[in-house]
């Protein structure tokens, strides 16, 4: 990169110093996450690089923590739970949230501000308070420590993300398309599935992914509402960190990092697709 | 003739008017009524789409929280357990020990409680409730109620022999005060205050003042974390916004990957790095910067909490900052420089003021999230890094003082809602974007 000719020596120093600072901050963001990946292959039960690892001696590396993880019934159950709860909660929050977003983006919707406030409150209220409230209420109606209870709780926490992303997609939505369809004889249902849905789909999917990751990563509500049978991956990690911290945690963490990279890629691709589509459609 | 209203629904209108001169539709109804009906129907449809989610959130989210907050003032224990005693206490002068009649009523209440099925007994909850006020109450009341069927008149002496608690006016003052359906005592406890002998509100003993300090520490830590995320987030947001789109998107991954990575993964990453036998200490020892026996304790204290939370919340600062900086045309700063401003002046007077909405959005967002944070302080906070939410969780899960937990929770919730309201005033929720 060539610098402008009019840069003085001071400008040049500042130009490079600023980049060094920025890359140090990027390093701060990424290093803690990435450093766990090599450490998870440690042959020793330590959280640090052994001499063998540093000299790249193959004996310093092993898959024992992955074997530990895959052979443990508790961890395996937590994977099943996390996916089952995450998917169920996502389906519930995405369908309710998409419907609500469709209503909220209509001009004639009454009390929009107030209702929007209530709907996004699960995102604002500190999790500890939501968890405490649900803990008492779910115990009263006998759904605490059930699969159903955890799904309901996670669905409630995920809906704001769906409502916000889908509403944002609908801002650029051309209402004359649905009117044209209705004019050509489409019923409201046909209209929804053939016209509206394909157009807002990127928004719905990224909302759904946010709802899924919210549930998948959620731990506070699980601590209060879930029983032993509903332990999810974060819940299992929580006990792992609190009780006996072993490098198995790092193996799990590595797998979770890979999952988040996959999700991040999907969301990013969707966002670009959405931008392209909106760029093409007449405003 | 057909007319199209704003949303394109056709309302047929004829050319006739009725006797009062109002326009009529082709089927003879007044036009205004027909329009109102159509509008009402559309309103109902819109509301009908929102209603399922609204009902869901109200039932499973809002109602439980309101119900929990209600616990912070709800006070049924004394009324339920000692109805007769409370009636008898009405004549008490509040100075000396109550009369025999009061002790007899207490005896009757306790005897009546023994008749109830075990799950409906009220003396147990009463003992727990009064124990929040006097620490000896629980043991005293349960012991007395176990032996009460052997008591004989005069009951005043019988009670006073049974436990010294009944020889003191303090317990009677508390029973009288808490014999009302609502109480302020949980909120008093939450601000380190209590009632003295004359039922006046005073500050709690020095060694029992915890919550005001804890709220203060929670706020102070949140301010520090918000400032740290700003100090680290501003340069990289600025750098990202100055890059061409393709490069910026690539570097953005450095911000988004932590954002999408599990919270527990990030917290355990910091444990791995910072603990006594962790990566950083081992490295410092091996290059001989610190001795093997004085490793730096960077985790399980306030430092660890602040480092980990800064890392976790940094994306929440960078994303709003970046989206604001993206919209600032670089020509403004160039114009300022061409008019003779030094780079510092151009930055301070022209660029920086335009980033304020982003700073406000990111700052309030990070602050709101950090004052209610639970997981990271619980895992890496140790004693000095505890925050208010850890105390709420402790009262719900182990000390079982739910009223106090509710009072602390309500205070936290109210502070968050005020901040959120401010956030809305400053920037509006529309600027909330994810990813």
Describe the protein.
The complex is a heterodimer of chains A (283) and B (435). Chain A is built from 13 helices and no strands. Chain A is mainly alpha-helical and 283 residues long. In chain A, helix 5 (73-104) crosses helix 12 and helix 6 packs across helix 8 (147-171). In chain A, 42% of the residues are buried. The model of chain A has no long low-confidence stretch (mean pLDDT 89). By secondary structure, chain B is mainly alpha-helical. Chain B folds into 3 domains: 2-70, no CATH class; 77-183, no CATH class; 211-431, MetI-like fold (Orthogonal Bundle), CATH 1.10.3720.10. Chain B contains 19 helices and 5 strands. In chain B, the strands form 2 sheets. In chain B, strands 1-2-3 form a 3-stranded antiparallel beta sheet, covered by helices on one side. Chain B has a two-stranded antiparallel ribbon with strand order 4-5. The longest helix of chain B has 40 residues, at 31-70. Chains A and B meet through helix 1, helix 5, helix 6, helix 7 and helix 8 of A and helix 1, helix 10, helix 11, helix 12 and helix 14 of B.
Outline the fold blueprint.
The complex is a heterodimer of chains A (283) and B (435).
Chain A (H helix, E strand, L loop, with lengths): L8 H26 L1 H4 L11 H4 L9 H7 L2 H32 L7 H13 L2 H14 L6 H25 L3 H9 L4 H30 L2 H6 L7 H10 L5 H33 L3
Chain B lengths: L1 E3 L5 E8 L5 E3 L5 H40 L6 H5 L1 H7 L10 H16 L7 H9 L5 H11 L7 H8 L6 H10 L6 H6 L2 E3 L5 E3 L7 H32 L2 H16 L2 H12 L4 H8 L15 H24 L5 H8 L4 H29 L3 H6 L7 H10 L4 H25 L9
Antiparallel strand pairs in B: 1-2, 2-3, 4-5
For the report, how would you describe the main beta sheet of chain B? 3 strands, antiparallel
| Largest sheet: spatial strand order of chain B | 1-2-3
Q: Give me the CATH superfamily of the largest domain in chain B.
A: MetI-like
The tally of domains of chain B stands at 3
Report the end-to-end length of chain A measured between terminal Cα atoms.
39 Å
Return the domain count of chain A: 2
CATH architecture of the largest domain in chain B: Orthogonal Bundle
In total, the number of strands of chain B is 5
Uncertain segments of chain B are 1-10
Oligomer: heterodimer
- Report the radius of gyration of chain A as a whole number of Å: 24 Å
Helices and strands of chain B, in N-to-C order? EEEHHHHHHHHHEEHHHHHHHHHH
Number of helices of chain A: 13
């Amino acid at each position: 990169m060539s610098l402008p000719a009019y840069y003085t020596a001071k400008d040049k120093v500042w130009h490079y110093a600023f980049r060094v600072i920025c890359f140090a901050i990027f390093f701060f963001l990424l290093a803690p996450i990435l450093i766990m990946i090599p450490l998870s292959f440690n042959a020793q039960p330590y959280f640090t690089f052994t001499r063998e690892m540093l000299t790249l001696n193959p004996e310093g590396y092993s898959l024992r923590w992955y074997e530990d993880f895959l052979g443990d019934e508790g961890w395996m159950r937590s994977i099943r739970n996390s996916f089952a709860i995450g998917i169920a909660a996502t389906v519930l929050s995405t369908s309710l949230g998409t419907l609500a977003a469709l209503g909220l983006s209509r001009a004639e919707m009454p009390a929009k501000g107030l209702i929007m406030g209530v709907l996004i409150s699960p995102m604002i209220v500190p999790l500890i308070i939501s968890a405490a409230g649900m803990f008492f209420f779910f115990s009263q109606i006998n759904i605490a420590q059930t699969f159903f209870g955890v799904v309901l709780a996670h669905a409630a926490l995920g809906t704001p993300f769906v409502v916000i992303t889908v509403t944002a997609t609908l801002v650029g939505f051309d209402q004359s398309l649905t009117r044209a369809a209705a004019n050509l004889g489409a019923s409201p249902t046909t209209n929804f599935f053939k016209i509206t849905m394909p157009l807002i789909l990127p928004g719905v999917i990224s909302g759904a992914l946010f709802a899924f990751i919210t549930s998948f990563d959620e731990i506070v509500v699980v601590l209060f509402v879930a029983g032993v049978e509903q332990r999810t991956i974060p819940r299992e990690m929580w006990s792992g960190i609190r009780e006996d911290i072993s490098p198995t945690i790092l193996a799990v963490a590595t797998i979770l990092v890979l999952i988040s990279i996959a999700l991040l890629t999907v969301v990013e691709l969707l966002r670009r697709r959405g931008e392209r589509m909106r760029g093409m459609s007449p405003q | 003739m057909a007319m199209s209203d704003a949303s394109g629904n056709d309302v047929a209108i004829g050319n006739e008017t009725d006797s009062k001169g109002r326009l009529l539709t082709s089927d003879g109804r007044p036009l205004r009524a027909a329009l109102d009906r159509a509008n009402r129907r559309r309103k109902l449809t819109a509301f009908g789409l929102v209603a399922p989610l609204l009902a869901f959130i109200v039932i499973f989210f809002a109602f439980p929280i309101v119900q929990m907050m209600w616990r912070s003032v709800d006070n049924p224990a004394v009324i339920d357990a000692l109805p007769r005693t409370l009636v008898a206490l009405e004549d008490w002068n509040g100075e000396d020990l109550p009369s025999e009649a009061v002790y007899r009523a207490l005896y009757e209440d306790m005897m009546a409680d023994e008749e109830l099925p075990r799950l409906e007994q009220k003396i147990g909850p009463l003992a727990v409730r009064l124990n929040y006020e006097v620490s000896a109450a629980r043991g005293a009341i349960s012991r007395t109620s176990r032996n009460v069927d052997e008591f004989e008149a005069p009951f005043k002496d019988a009670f006073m022999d049974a436990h010294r608690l009944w020889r003191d006016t303090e317990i009677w003052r508390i029973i009288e005060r808490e014999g009302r359906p609502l109480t302020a005592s949980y909120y008093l406890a939450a601000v380190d205050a209590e009632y003295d002998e004359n039922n006046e509100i005073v500050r709690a003993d020095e060694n029992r003042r915890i919550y005001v300090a804890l709220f203060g520490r929670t706020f102070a830590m949140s301010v520090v974390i918000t400032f740290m995320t700003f100090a680290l987030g501003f340069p990289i947001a600025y750098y990202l916004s100055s890059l061409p789109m393709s490069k910026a998107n690539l570097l953005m991954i450095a911000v988004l990957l932590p954002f999408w990575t599990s919270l527990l993964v990030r917290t355990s990453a910091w444990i791995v790095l910072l603990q006594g036998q962790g990566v950083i200490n081992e490295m410092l020892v091996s290059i001989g910067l610190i001795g093997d026996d004085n490793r730096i304790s960077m985790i399980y204290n306030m430092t660890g909490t602040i480092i980990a939370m800064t890392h976790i919340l940094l994306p929440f600062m960078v994303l709003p900052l970046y989206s604001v900086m993206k919209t600032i045309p670089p020509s403004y700063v160039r114009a300022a420089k061409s008019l003779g401003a030094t780079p510092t002046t151009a930055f301070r007077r022209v660029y920086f003021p335009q980033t304020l909405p982003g700073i406000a959005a990111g700052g309030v967002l990070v602050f709101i999230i950090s004052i209610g944070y639970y997981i990271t302080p619980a895992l890496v906070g140790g004693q000095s890094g505890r925050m208010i939410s850890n105390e709420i969780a402790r009262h719900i899960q182990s000390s079982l003082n739910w009223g106090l937990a509710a009072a602390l929770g309500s205070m936290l919730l109210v502070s968050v809602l005020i901040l959120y309201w401010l956030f809305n005033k400053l920037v509006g929720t529309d600027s909330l974007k994810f990813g």
